[in-house]
Design goal:
64% helix
Length: 76
């Protein structure tokens, strides 16, 4: 099976997975095509879902990576 890179842990992998949720929420924009010509309430809910989902994924992923990453000194 696949292995994690040296120095990486499962918690960092999970943080990157959370960041991928930002891209996944973009597929919700396709929902606008499904509701074209219908009640404007659907469009508002769709946009709110995309914004909330992207924001939540980004914040959780960033927090997870900040908590699990260690600063490494670069040699001069």
């Amino acid at each position: 099976g696949a292995r994690l890179p040296a120095g990486a842990g499962w918690s960092q992998f999970f943080g990157v997975c959370l960041l991928c949720g930002v891209g996944f929420t973009m597929s919700l924009f396709i929902g606008a095509l499904a509701f074209a010509g219908q009640d404007a309430g659907y469009e508002t809910q769709l946009k709110l879902g995309v914004l909330c989902g992207s924001l939540l994924s980004g914040v959780l992923g960033a927090v997870m990576l900040m908590r699990t990453s260690t600063a490494q000194k670069v040699p001069n």
